[in-house]
Amino acid sequence: MQGLIVIPAYNEGQNIARLLARLQATSPVEDVVVVNDGSRDNTRAELERLGVEHINHPINLGYVRALQTGIRYAQDRGYDYMIFIDGDGQHDPAQIADLRRVGLADGSPEIVIGSRFVREQGYRAPLGRKLGMLLFSSLTALIGGKRIHDTTSGFKLMHRRAYTMVCEQIYGDFHSEMIIFSLLAGLRIEEVPITVAQREFGVSMYNWVSALLYPFKTLLAISVLWVEAQRQRRLA
Amino acid sequence: MTSLPFSPAATVAVLVFCLIGAAACVMLLARRKLTMGYTLVWLGVIAGLAALVTVPHLAQALTGVVAAQSPDGLLRLLAFVTIVGFLIFFSMKVSELTQRIEDLAQRVALFDYEQRRSRQKPSDPS
Fold first, then answer.
1. Which residues from B are below 8 Å from A when comparing CB atoms?
2. I need a surface site. Which of A51, A60, A150, B62 has the fewest CB within 10 A?
3. ipTM of the complex
4. What pLDDT band is residue A119 in, cutting at 50, 70 and 90?
5. Which of B38, B97, B106 to mutate to probe the A interface, most A CBs <10 Å?
6. In degrees rounded to 5, what are phi and psi of residue B97?
7. Closest Cα of chain B to A56: distance in Å?
8. Is A180 helix (H, G, I), strand (E, B) or coil?
9. Which residues make Cβ contacts (< 8 Å) with residue A52, sequence separation at least 6?
10. Has residue B4 got a pLDDT over 70?
């Protein structure tokens, strides 16, 4: 099976070299591509200096579009599975092995999520974010039929069937709505425990405005995707 | 007993309009005629309108704030509906253009990648 690691990056010039070095140290069996989402810092220069495969958005399109570009790249080349890892260096590339262990076994689920919460990892989130995560985790159980503890993890493995199905269904942040859509469409999802480091450089893509709108956007996306998921389930 | 600001018939009519409007917004989002951002804005406007006709004293309070006369009639309602219709139309157009630009930018990025790769490949001496 041939896999692809996709790293979406926006203004991660200070993080990307270290992340790629850590990734290379794990000797990944997958190909690697970085999607530079119209960065305004030296991200592109760093990628060219490092000689890593990268795709440059001419303008900033957002995290979800960056993932979608990676998916389109994978579709064009027929990769059997994809692994997403954030470009800010918070995910440990060594834990890709854990995703593979569950995701590439016989009878594996179509989606494996690296979760901060499936086992106590000492990860501390602000109260507002905790409540939001609790809400959407409950929704995955209520609507999708399976509780997913970490609905906002950017560390995932997706088989071709899954990434093909979700590619055109992107409405929100590729978080809980994608998970619920996948569950409703009949895809299997498992979580593996991971540890997440604090971001060292750069700025998070979320600010207080986006945090405020997040629950409304996600609930709206879930309601729209529910209908599409039923249709995908009938087609399968 | 608190009283609603408008007659029961007007209140029901406005609420029906709000329900239809909300359903239309979600349908337009599902058909990708409207982006997520605009959908949320319009749902917020519809929620505000529904609140205006159902929350007692809210309409009067707001009328007082802007120093207007009492809520008036068919002409203003028609003007309001026309303006809303135009705004929704232009929201749809902007959403469509936004989607097209984003799709184009993705295609440009992937094309640029292919071009770079083909330039990096050594040329065939034969």
1. 26, 29-30, 36, 39-40, 43, 102, 105-106, 108-110, 112-113
2. A51
3. 0.72
4. low
5. B106
6. -65, -40
7. 5
8. helix
9. A20, A32, A33, A34
10. no
